[in-house]
Amino acid sequence: MAEADPQPVRLLTDEDESARGHRLRFIVLGVAVAVAVGFMVYAAFPSNTQYFLTVDEFLAGEEYQDGQMLRVSGKLVAESFMREEGSTQSYFQLTSNVEQANPQVTASYVGVMPDLFFNPHSEIVLEGRYTPQEVFETDHILVKCPSKYQALEETQEGLPYEEYPALEYPASG
Question: CA distances (Å), 18 to each of 14, 28, 29, 51, 141, in order?
Answer without folding.
Answer: 6, 15, 16, 53, 57
